[in-house]
Design brief:
The chain has helices at 4-27, 43-70, 76-91, 93-103, 108-113, 118-155, 159-210, 212-221, 235-255, 257-264, 269-273, 276-300, 310-318, 321-354, 366-383, 388-411, 418-438, 447-465. The protein is mostly helical and 476 residues long. The protein has one domain (4-392): Sodium/glucose cotransporter (Up-down Bundle). Helix 16 runs antiparallel to helix 17 (418-438). The longest helix has 52 residues, at 159-210.
Amino acid sequence: MPIDASVAVFVATLAATFVASLLGRIHAKRSRSEGLAGERLNKWLVGLSAGATANSGFVVTGAVGLGYAFGAQWLLLPLAWLIGDMLFWTLFPGRINRLGREANASTLTDVLGAGMRPVAKRVLQILASIVILVCLTGYVAAQWIAGEKFLEGAFGFEGYVALATFAGLIVLYTAIGGFRGSVYADSFQAVLRVVGTALALGAIIIVARQDGGAFAANIGAAGAGFLQILPNASWLAGGAFVAGYAAASLGFGLGQPQIVSRYLAGASPEETRAAWWIYILFVQFTWIAMTVFGMMLRGVMPALGDPEMGLSIFFRTYAGPLLTGLIVADVFATIAATSNSLLVAMAQTVKHDLFGQRAGTVGLPLWPITLVVGGLTMALASMLNATVVGLALSSVSLMGAGLAPAMLIRLLSWKQNDFSLIASIIAGLTVAIAWKLSGIGATLNEALPGLVAGLLANFLVWVLTHGRTTKMGGRG
């Protein structure tokens, strides 16, 4: 297969991404006193950038691999996620934007700590920052591993060269664009993802129909349960799976700083809330489609060594250079959108939460922090021997368990004080880690028990300390 044309398409897409990032830097709002609220993003920028950030390399590697290896049962995952997303968008994005404006917030931690006494707020900032940086490091590493697999499958790059090339490009354009550059690049990449998803489904349907007998035989050889939503499992087990990942989805919306930052930057609470249908349709269409693609790929190419590389390998095998270039660009954009947003979120956490630089001050710019964070996560990824699925889901679930209960309490104005909010973070994270290590997380995702534990810890500590600590914003 001629590779030059596919490389040209990929390079053109990469150049467009750098242009979008540069435009973001040029268009960045100059008012520093409003936190992220000063960015005034419309619903399309909120919905598309948040959706592209949420998609991650998991969708084009992990979802394909799960569909290929296990079949229809993994369609339950996006459907469970949909339940959590619907609950989240019904109640929270507008509240996040409103509270962020009141708190002049530049980070998720600013929202959590609004109204707290200085010492307690500093403790919460440091605690939340540690949770964010540790979990996002694992999440970024998952993206670098996905990118490595992408370059290996698309162009035959190998090992460290693939990882360093992929990660280096993204770190560079992230450092150039900053927060608004990240939003612009993500929105461009979201549009590309929709096109790439439709292209992938259409292509594999055409290939499967060319030899329908072989396709049917390969699907049959995958096992009787391959096309069943609940193979060899009870409805109780299926319900536990759905409940656990619905909680993980809710925790994702509330506890992921790279997502929360988009809601903080909305032009108004109403404009932020209006992005719900853009976000949900984008996430569900791309996720379900890639799982179905993986299932169909099992019938077309039944002997793949690493199914997570299946999307790139399929196009390199069956498509011409133009289509291959388009899908390569799409896969890159999907992984890059999340990686880019994660790096910005980590840099903001270091600058505003660890170094304590508030909105309205200049201080250390984001770009050198981004370069350092990118280099460290790249080095970690090169040493890991893990799947994209395992790293991504674990990082998302643990951070959601640690931070979502406190965000839920703040946004719904439940009883709280300085001690109880800090306790909710510690309890939620501790229970989630213990739950995962016990092995029960394979049946019921650790986000749900972590969320319950965090809420319970807040209530118990508030009861025990009520009247002996300063009230927070009149809600104590």
